[in-house]
Structures are given as structure tokens and as C-alpha cells.
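Q: Can I see a sequence and its folded structure?
A: Here is a first one.
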Amino acid sequence: MKNCLLLIAGVAACLSLGVPAAAAEPTIEIDAATRERCLVVLRNGLHGDDFWPAIHAAEGLTLGGYGAEVRQCLEPKLATEQDDQRRCGIARELVRAGDRSKSSVLLGILSSDNDHGHVHAAESLYKLNELGDGQAIRLGFAHTDNLRLRLMAAAALGRAGSPAALQVLRETLNDSDPEVARLAAWVLGRIGDPSDIARLKLRLSNSDDRLARAFFEHSLAALGDESGQQALTRNLTSDDATIRTFAATFAGDARMTDAASQLKKMLDDPHPDAAIRAAQSLLWMARKD
């Protein structure tokens, strides 16, 4: 697929914080009807009963420039939610929507004796580019007995420039567990560099797990690889709803403006989270401020 610009991790790093695209980056035009349809999808998702799609919808609204209504909706929920994993999701989106004071919630959960929310807290801190004083995230990185926590801590530290953390992520691409390998790929697609293209292609060539292959392809796309972008375009019409959902998310990460027409079709996807992610990517790529 022809794409007007090959972008690497800087764009994806901005995406995770909801930072608007710079003027030099490619944008799309969406008409008023499409914008309204995106907002309907995201607002319905935000106020729906399915928790994590609601959190994804909050992200999409913030990326589209509607953070104020996200804060209004989520602030009361943070005060009543008891589950630490869900508290991480709420706090993360409140920070992304402009209330950085809520990063203390994430740091507190990561530092707590109850490990139920540790992975979610580390992942959220990575997405927000927030380390606090660094102590809790470094402890997470040292947890070799909890590989998912170590990977998410490595993501946060790697985004802050730690070569050791990036090395762990690159080594983990070769893990025999497809879920673990795809987590490493997911992060490298956002904070890696062009040298990771060869690593991802090699891992893709010896993987037969369908979802893991999609992650490798989407990360290649985010790093500007043309074959990865072609694969992502195909995955937008996958018969697997999970693959479609991640493809829609990565289309925005990669600033794949050529995917806009398919993303518009996905606003009516029968899988709600796929529609939410399509709306998110459309609004994100349409921002010019």
C-alpha cells in the first residue's frame, strides 16, 4: 500500500499520550457526517457496560480533542472503583485527558503489596511516559519471575531511553510463548527504531500463531515498513475480530492515511471494540492542531 510518509516511534509515542500530530505529518479530511458517526461510536462506547472498550473509547475521544467530556465521565468512577486493574484504566485515561495528578494512582498501585494491578500500572505508565521517581518501575523491571510485568516496565524504561530495557524487549521477541513475543513486538513498534524491522521480519517468518503474526505485521507497519503496511491493510478486513481491532488501532499509530476509507467502513463493524478503534484512528489522523 502506498503511504505518503514513513513514520517511526515518535508518532506512536505521541499517540499514547494523545498529543496532536505535527503539521508536517500526514492528516486526513473527514466530513461532518463521518466525524459525527465517530463521536457517536465513541460516546456510546464510553457510556456502555463493557469496561475495557469504554476505556478505549475514552482514549479515542481524548485523541480526537474531546478530553473534557472524558474527565467528566471518568472522574466519579475513579472514586468508586475498587478493582486495581480497572482503576489503572480509569486513571490512565484521566491523565491522558489532561489530569496528570492521577498518575499518582498508577504509581501507588505499582508500589502496592497487592500485585493484582502491577502489570496494568506499568503498562499505563509506559503509555503515559511517566516514571515518577523511577523506583517502582525499576523494581518491576527486576521482576524476572513475572515476565509481563518486566516487559511493561521495560517498555516504560525503554521509552525513557534505557538501552538495557530495549535490549530485553528485543530479546523477548524470540520467546517461545506467542503472547509474550507479541507484547514485545507491540512495544517495539512504538518505541523501537528502523533496526527493529529486520528483527520483526525474522520473528514473523518463524511464527505460525495468527494473532502473533498480526502483531509483528502491525509493528512493522508502525515502523514504516511497506510490507507491514500492506499486511495491516489486509488485516482490517480479517475474519478475526481481535485482529481487525488491533489493525484499526495500529493504522492510527502508523499514520496510514490510505486506510481511511476502510476505517470508515469499520465504524459499522459488528465487533464494538473494532468500531471504537476505527473511530479513534480516524479522529486522530484528522487532527491538525
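Q: Show me another, different protein.
A: A second, unrelated one:
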Amino acid sequence: MFNQDREQAFAKTALALMGGAGVVATPENFELFYAYASGENPAIAQVMGAVINAKTPFTPELLSDLRLRCLSGARAAVAMESLGGDMSSLINDVLGKLESSARETADYKHTLSAATGELDSDRNPADVRKLVEGLIAATRAMEQRTKALEGELQASSQQVCDLRGKLDDVRKESMTDPLTHIANRKAFDEAMEAGRKAADAGDDVCLLMCDIDHFKKFNDSWGHQTGDQVLRLVASCMAENVKGRDTAARYGGEEFAVLLRGTTLQSATMVADQIRSTVETKKLVKKSTGDVLGTITISIGVAKFAPGETAEAVIRRADACLYGAKHSGRNMVINQDDARIAALETSAA
């Protein structure tokens, strides 16, 4: 669940680390140190941890390299800039070829017009033969140039297809969580907006908010690498149980979200319990020794979009259901119609 105190603590830690390392507090630098403080990015945690422990200075070059290597957004920006340059070069090349072809076509047209005028005048057979031979040569040259242009444009068309594929790859990377390989928060926000519009149109759209039980215990007991293994395992269980237009995403930290399109609240609750049950059957095993470290469980809250409702309102309601599942003992699913939610609201009041 979103925890404002926790997020503020991460922000304070990030700022303190930046101050201690003498790093300028720019938004780009803050993003790096916040990712390190939260522990959400394993690559940043490993590299920056080593730099901090070694008391090596964070030079501008090092910070830039970290952003490019560890933050998908920065990598995507660089890739987009490179692809933009490639696309601009390709467009200029094609335009140059078309302009050259237009000039050659105009020259050929002028040759034909001139020949027509000459044929209208009195000419002896030898002159006519020479004129016709010239027209044949000009026509053959035009055919060759046209054929060459066709081949060049086909090659350019293939280059456009290749660039389009690279653009798709960049977009996919920018929408994917690097640790769990499911949708990231940006992709989730886009899916929620599409879900809101679908709900306004009368479709059933439900949201699952999921949180790993006692996740901090795994990190504290076995380290961040084991915690990352837990996150990947839970993400794979979610990906296995969604399909089509559904979206499974890492919402933040140890919290996940699943958006279900064309699914009633009752069916969404069943999907949630299926995910919960799948996770519960998994055993966390230490690869080096084969020792079983424990069983993973998750708690899930389920809410349904109402027509005209904002995405933020649905998230708050699903989050409240998730809190209810945690409060009621964890490893369970509670939806917005559950009597336990009403009881919690009454006790809170």
C-alpha cells in the first residue's frame, strides 16, 4: 500500500545521502538517490552501494553513466534521440532522391517536348532517324533511373520498418519494470485511464491492489537479492493469471496492481484468489544450498470502477480493501462489498 510516511522517509534519506556525497540536488540526481534509498532498483542498489561504501566521489560522469545504465527512462530518452536522428537522416535521404527524380523527369519531359516540335518541322529521313534514336536512348535512361529509384525506395521502406520496430522496442522498455519484467507504473497509469473510459462506456472494469505479506522480513533476513527473487516470483504468478486486455503491473516497492477489463466484481475476486493461491504454493529456495527459506503470501483488495469515477478514487477504495485484508490476518482477498470493510470503516469512525 502507498505509505506517505515511508515515501517521505525515502526522500529524506535520498537528500541526506546526496548532501553527504556532495552531489547537487537536481531532479535527475534525486531520482537516482531516491531509487537507491527505496531499494526498488537492484542495479542501482548494488552499484551505488559499492560507491558509497568505497567512499568514491559521485562525479557528473559517474552519475550520468548510472542513469543511462540503470534507469529505463534515461535509456529510453537516449534511444529515442538516436532513433530521431536516424529517422531525420532517412527522411532527408528519401526527399533528396525524390527531388533528383523530379528534376530528371522534368528533363525527360523537356526532351520529349523538344522532339515533338522538331518532328512537326520538315526533316529528312536521316534527321528523323537520329531524333528517334535520341528519344529511345533518353527513354531507356529514364527507365533505368526509375528502376534504380524504385529499388532505393524499397530499401528506404525497409529501413523505416526497422526503425519502427526499434521504436516499439524502446516504448516497450519504457513501459516495463526492469526487475519483474511486467508493466511499470507508467504503463499502469495508461491502462487505468483506458479502464476509466471503458467503465464510463458501461464495461465492467475492476482493480486489484496486491501487497506481499511481511516483505520487509525477507529483505532483513535474507538480503535484497532474495527480496528481488520474491518480487519476480510474485510478478510471474500475476502474469500467469491475466490475459488479453488485462494488465499486471508493479505499482511500487512490494505492491502490485492488476487491472481486469470486462470482469465483474465477483469474477475479479475469484481471479484475485486464484493469484493469491498460486503465490501461496510457491516455496522460496536458496539456490546455493537448496534450503527452503519460507512461503510467500500476499493480500489483495478488489474494487470496481463506477461510471464517472476517477482512477484515483478506485485506487483508494482498492487500497482500503487491501488494508482490510492485512488487518484481518493477511493472505486473503477482500472486495469492496465485503462486510469486513464496513466493519473497519465503522470502527475507524
